[in-house]
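Late entry, pyridoxal-5'-phosphate complex.
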Amino acid sequence: MKRTSVTFNLNEPLIFERSGPAKTAYTLPPLDVEDVPVEEILESKYLRQEVQGFPEVSEVELIRHYTRLSTWNYHIDLGMYPLGSCSMKYNPKLNERVARISNIALTHPLQEEQHSQGNLEILFKLQEALKELTAMDAVSLQPAGGAQAEFTGILMIRACHLSRQGDPRKFVLIPDSAHGTNPASAVLAGYEVISIPSNQEGRIDVQELAEKMTEEVACLMLTNPNTMGIFETQIEEIAQIVHQKGGLIYMDGANFNALMGYARPGEMGIDVLHLNLHKTFSTPHGGGGPGSGPVACKKDLSRYLPVPRVEQEGGRYRLNSDEPASIGRVHAFYGNFGMAVRALCYILTCGREGLKELSGMAVLSANYVRRQLEEYYELPYDTPILHEVVFSDKRQNEKGVTTLDIAKRLIDYGFHPPTTYFPLIVPGALMIEPTESHSKEELDAFIEAMIAISREARDDPDSVTSAPTTAKLTRLDEVGAARSPHLRWRQ
Ligand SMILES: Cc1ncc(COP(=O)(O)O)c(C=O)c1O
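Prediction complete; structure with ligand written out below:
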């Protein structure tokens, strides 16, 4: 059965069309002190032409405008958001409450150390918690997201090779199942990328790795679990191959939601790692950001971490910028502080056992979806999965129905589509990551919708290829929207 999705009246006037000179949402009270001079706040010559002529509407129209806009969007507070490789989990409201406490939210980042001890303590405690969860020795909270964290980590690896042999080495090995940002980060840091193919199980081909691992290779960048949701079980052997040739291992740990409490990368031979707070640790993303991508490393590499570092000494917290080997700063101040507050709140609320339980639930949910849907959608790899499942459109394609059509049809059923056409190693990939946030009923509703779409694709393909029918706009020029967006209202 279809869920009711948000419906729109396309003929409804927009706020500019409701504007009228006699309408007012708010009026400043009259001056109550006689000798205060009345000045024009900003002379009109300073106002740009295009920002003049704002709509004049009443308070209720203004409120309805923003409330209406908020209903045109899909969000995690509305329903399941199964975007693979994004861990779109629920963002608990407690995190938001804590982040808004005025002592926390209103501190100026340039405030003296002795006046921001509480804030530094939050950062320090989060670093310690992440060290404990990952078994790494040092953490920086500076990077603003996963991709920037990868860039930071690869710069640290480069600095390490430079200090050891005076040579940064030339190549970075990256499996073809890695997240797309990995090769971009390696190239930005000055490396050439060598791709390692996946084997029939969807894991890195260890034989190929051994052949391609030379003394010119700076590191292997490994997403684990990879973008197929598959755990790299041969990680210890992989680490040995790379280390034997003097290389290092960078682990893209953005998928840590699958491992938390069960496995610690520091015990698998990983040298540098990043986590995405906005995935695993429930801080908002997808328009609600900003993100945060802490970098963690082993002791030998800690001197290359960005500065300033948050440290504790004699019961006091301090910022230390005195590290000549550091790669420097990668973010203003100490990173996106508000995200660190939310993540620490999440960790403390869940506790060690709670985090483990959530990871287990995320894996269980993905496996439940896989088991229920494998009869209807093609599964490119039969290998057991952790937090996400990748199907393809192979069966539906026989009737001319593609992944894009299935994704669009899900909108009609009231769900946000999964990630599409990624990872690239699966043609027509449909990548579903349910996370631990949903009840069995919600998962079942999603599964029912997916099954209904597979039946429609078989019996009535037009109903799928013409979707969505309930959305405000139907098929968009997505490339055009990204390359030349129109961000201003036009008459
Ligand atoms: C496995 C993996 N690595 C890296 C990233 C990049 O992170 P960000 O989008 O924060 O730059 C993501 C993002 O979802 C990811 O899933």
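The longest strand covers residues 217-223. Will revisit in the morning.
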